[in-house]
Task: structure prediction
Amino acid sequence: MKKIIAITAATFAIAGCSNMSNTEQRTVSGAAIGATAGAIGTAIFHGNPIWGAVGGAAVGAASGYIYDAYKKEQGSEYNAGYNAGKTGKPATAPN
Result:
């Protein structure tokens, strides 16, 4: 019975992420990775994984959001260079 509940929960979790934007996906992924790392780290060194999971999720979500902003800027710079190459005009740096 526990396996059925776990499989059902995993299915709903995966299906719930299907319509997310890249920003939302990266933020949630960062939170999940951070929560896992925080829980494991505090379980090994302190014994209570709850606070480690909470702190790890917060740090991971912030990191995922910052990474998304970096990827968007990187894409913007690439597109500016690509468009400049097509037109033959020098690219200007994005503000």
